[in-house]
Give the backbone structure.
Amino acid sequence: MSQQRVLMVILVLNGAIPTILRKTLEKDCVRLYQHHFGKHHKLFPIWVEVPRSQAFLAAEPSNATTVSIGVEDDLPNDIRHAFMSEFCKLWMTHTGCNKNEFMLTAMDFQAQRDLLALTQTRIRPSRRLLATLQMVGRLAKSKIFSRHFSASINL
């Protein structure tokens, strides 16, 4: 069976999770994902940094993290929920956050692809190629200097 890349997008407050903890989270998330869905999946984590002044929850500054990860289309809810429950426990254990500071979405691969395509539509067609190249450049730079893919939400 060929390897399937799985996108994992992490929206995190700027500086809230140190690099060493990010590497541990990535490694343990890969292990958990492969345990549930098979070793042929390769997680591709992208950390999106949110400036502290741009994150609010219940009308107050927030330190909440959101993770969105793809799963097989039409995955039965009992399997999806078992994975999500373990994922949340893993994340909260590693970071020390509580249940009100973490949200996980495990969306169908097709829904995730549709959402990513939709985000492209917010960029003028004449600028899409340049914007994509800039984003890829920033991701590559972050991987070289911080050893993980990271970008600011304010591209």
User: Anything to note?
Assistant: The two ends are 36 Å apart (CA to CA). Helices lie at 19-37, 77-95, 109-120, 128-146. The first strand starts at residue 4 and ends at 13.
